[in-house]
Amino acid sequence: MTAHPHPAAGRVVEVLRGIFRERLYSVVAYGPQIDDRRADASLSCLVLVTTLTHADLEACASRAHAWRREGIGTPLLLPDEEFRRSLDAFPLEYAEIIRAHAVLFGPNPFDGVTIERADLRRACETQIKSHLVHLREGFIEAGGTPLAVSDLVTASAPAFAALLRNIARLNGSTARDRAAATHEGAEAAQLSKDIVNHMLALERPAAVKATDGARLFPEYLAAVEQLARYVDTWNAR
User: pLDDT tens for residues 118-161?
Assistant: First the structure.
């Protein structure tokens, strides 16, 4: 087990071992606890097992309230074979876990795992164009109210940063650091450093004025449009 600062890391592994016994293959922590080193965030875990039954789900469900009290998110439970066969279906989600994780129990399940770049490109296109559609729709729904536009931009800032990390990953980035990966994606898509830095600052809205988001909207929209053009014409290097 890899040392992990969250006090419940050992306890969740102990409970899972009690439920699955020899069928527990690997437990991996991911998310803000690992990525941002946020001690106040819930502990997110990917749990891989050899088999998964209804009785297993019931046993985990009986722990749900206790896990929430202990700051543990609902584990992502998957049979190991199912995980490996769904890499093409959820390439971005799994790639984000692979980028920043800590093994709490068992072998590292990502050793030898490959996510195809063609799968990444298709997923990036879907994610970016969906973000663009919802951004335009949200602006119209805001009715021109600066505060509502600001809320829209601020709320979507984390998703925008994730788009950039996915672009970096598409181009073969292996950066584990969140900010470094985000900036690599922005550079690949030739986005303005200013808009990227402003949007990253909005991920921590307490540090900026509420009206900043509204002021940023035109440049932010243009950046997302540029991302859509970039992924449309992307070819493997």
Answer: 999 999 999 999 999 999 999 999 998 999 999 999 999 999 99
Cα 81 to the center of its chain, rounded Å: 22
Q: Is 236 helix (H, G, I), strand (E, B) or coil?
A: coil
Query: Where does residue 112 rank: exposed (0-12), middle (13-18), buried (19+ CB within 10 A)?
Result: exposed
The string of pLDDT tens digits covering residues 79-125 is: 999 999 999 999 999 998 998 899 999 999 999 898 999 999 999 99
CA dihedral 167, 170, 172, 177 (to 10 degrees): 40
Query: For residues 58 and 55, what is the distance between their CA atoms, to the nearest angstrom?
Result: 5
Max Cα separation, the chain?
58
Q: What is the C-alpha separation between 17 and 216, in angstroms, rounded?
A: 49
Where in the chain are the domains? 9-105, 117-232
Selection from 94, 85, 156, 99 nearest residue 120 by Cα: 94
Give just the sign of the alpha carbon dihedral 156, 157, 159, 160: positive
CA distance 120 to 171: 10
Going by CATH, does the domain composed of 9-105 fall within 3.40.50? Answer: no
Place of tokens 């940023």: 216
Q: Alpha-carbon distance 31 to 3, whole Å?
A: 16
